[in-house]
Design a protein that fits this description.
Elements: H1 2-28, H2 33-53, E1 62-70, E2 73-79, E3 90-94, E4 99-110, E5 115-125, E6 133-137, E7 152-158, E8 161-168, E9 178-183, H3 194-202, E10 206-209, H4 233-245, E11 250-256, H5 258-269, E12 276-282, H6 288-298, H7 303-314, H8 319-322, E13 346-351, H9 360-368, E14 373-378, H10 386-389, H11 391-406, H12 417-424
Parallel strand pairs: 9-10, 9-11, 11-12, 12-13, 13-14
Antiparallel strand pairs: 1-2, 1-6, 2-5, 3-4, 3-6, 4-5, 7-8, 8-10
Helix pairs in contact: 1-2, 2-7, 3-11, 4-5, 6-7, 11-12
Amino acid sequence: MASNTRSAREAADTKLSLRTKWAIAGFVAGGTLAGLVAAGSSALAVYFARRVITPAARHEDQEVLAVIRGDKGLQVILAATPDATIDGVFSLFFAGGQGHARIGRIVSYSPAEQTVLREVEEVYSGDLSEARRGWWSGATYPDPAAIGLAAEDVTIDVDGGQAPAWLIRAEASAPAPIWAIMVHGRGATRLEGLRAVRTARQLCMDSLLISYRNDGLAPSALDGRYGLGSTEWRDVEAAIEYAVEHGAKEIVLFGWSMGGAISLQTADLSKHRHLIRALVLDAPVINWVNVMAHHAEMNRIPYNVGRYGQLMLGHPLGRRLTGLSAPVDLKAMDWEARAVELRTPTLLIHSVDDDYVPYGPSASLAEKNPEMVTFEPFNGARHTKEWNVDPERWERVVHAWLQRQLAPRNNPGQPGSSERAAGAAPTG
């Protein structure tokens, strides 16, 4: 029986290898008509795969039509994009990221003209009246001072150098026994985690908002490519080591989008995983194959081409074409398939209309592992903007769930019980 299983696995591996070799051979050779067709498909697969793992500059895809002064201050007229027509509080970055404004509620919306008028709550930098285009973001604040909090600028030793981070203390008198480490998403920065800091402080946690490889602040990886969590988790492990060296006894990881995938890998692979008390993941990538298939379909990429792209990321032969220094094991990061292996209490917050990272795998993970995983669906928030559309609910849900996880355990003699009790006491 074992021999048959092994033979089947070897046959499958051979088939996978041959499929990948043919995909790459079609791209490289392509002399005949059939070869040219294969080459075209393979070239598209290469392009698709490289797009997934290559850091890219933000596109200023939000049109700014006018800035006017209303009765209650500045207002901005924007093209009515799907993001700009969601009520809530957001950021508009412009002038190549040098300008930043906090955009508030919708004043009026004209479907006929495809425009939306919104309040401008604050302009942090730049001249908004000069802006013609920008990009929309859920990272609402520019720095801790903008939410009235003092922060220490610290550096964390990572592969290739030092990564800057913000350390925001819960109390000035002494380090907290439990630290929250905020892990931002793909194409974002540590600004993303500022939305969670007040909740962490209410639970008496110090907050460490980190940067990691290829995010524009931390040292880049040698290959300049995202590992989709398979490499970035080492920078989170370095952040945990920093926290432990500075007084942390336990850790709560917060992760957004790819930051969720990174946090799951950290909880799985880190030598400090026993210190990770809980995960709070917002719109996380639970299954990269699902996300890539979704994006292939959205971009009208044929299924087989999308599959070739996935195979190139995971196969050693694909490295020359993708630029990766090592293959990315997408299967190892499929937490739908590995649901029962997740042994860290996890809260998943995910909007059901997320068209960037579909919510289905989050719901599936919770269904397959209800002992460890709690799923909290939102509506109308798109991707990683659950806090922005309903901050009161987001903070209430996270606070209540974490308070239960951080409560002292029943065994009073258990090591760390006093620290956990201190970490569970809210300040307000």
